[in-house]
Here is the input.
Amino acid sequence: MIYFDNSATTSIDKTVLQTFEKVSQTINGNPSSLHQLGNYADGLLQQSRKQIADLLNVSSEEIYFTSGGTEGDNWAIKGTAIEKHQFGKHVITTAVEHPAVKESVAQLEMLGFEVTILPVDPNGRISVSDLKEALRSDTILVSIMAVNNEVGSIQPIIEIGEVLKDHPAVHFHVDAVQAIGKIPLLLGRESRIDLATFSAHKFHGPKGMGFIYIKKGKQVAPLLNGGGQESGKRGGTENVAGAAAMAKALRLLLEKAGEKQKNQDEIKTYLMGQLEAYRRVSVFSQKEGAPHILCFALKGIRGEVMVHAFEKKEIYISTTSACSSRNGTASSTLVAMNVPGKIAASAVRISLTDTNTLEEAEFFMKEFGHLYQQFKDIK
Here is the structure.
């Protein structure tokens, strides 16, 4: 079995799972309880928070646990809107964001906010000059993902941050779900990023667990009110085992991260070169994009047909974003890149992780060659 759908989710690391099981079985207290069992649970929770903060070179008080990337994106966007609505109701985002961002800003529009959606070039990147022109005196938030989950385009986050240095009152949110461990990501005092969201199951951690970075001094209203957990910013009993497992997964991810990125980039480069040799194949990802995502289409063959054809060979790929793949629509990112709808509907995505190998990629191309011949008469 070859698993090339790691941007949808990764398998949980065995040692990470062991940590989750051990904590689940031995730490029974509620972190909010005053007794000794509660103190044990809270101690481990804070230890996990500190480990994540140290790995990212930020302060523990800037890390808040969530259920994953979707909650983090919703919190960053709606929490900013609630907190800063008296200062303005203008939000800027892009045409290639994850549905968690797109639908959050759409909901804000229904509540009277104005949203500017920045277009992208054929490579899926925004123009920094477009961002400059879009900024207004009533802008309260800029939300731009670091790495696109469908084609792997990398947004100019540093350059955007430079522009926003002249607008200190504007919150800058980065969806970093596909970026962590794949490209350099600077947080902390030297960075202009105010909010960043992460999801554990994208880096071999448990599903249903994530965290958000909120820079010290930046105010974001809570979405989940309750018992005052997470410094009063997110109500609900904390998932101690999930936090401990996520912290371990992040540590393992960032160990020898450069070597892992290089390995994935070599596999991606090999696959790109092989696929581009086929006349009816269009490759949408760029060599300069993220090392783990490769999006392409075989003209005339819908994406879901390709997915199921490879599944019969026990090779697992996807039709662009897993969060919207079941609705059968073309990739919104490719449409934003002005790819014709018929070709966009044929798009599929290969997404890699550090456990994938060049031998797997070679086997994939062998099977692709067979399928290409089977589909050669379909226009």
Notes: Residues 14-254 form a domain with the Aspartate Aminotransferase; domain 2 fold (CATH 3.40.640.10). The chain has two domains: 2-9+256-375, 14-254. The mean pLDDT is 95. The longest strand covers residues 293-298.
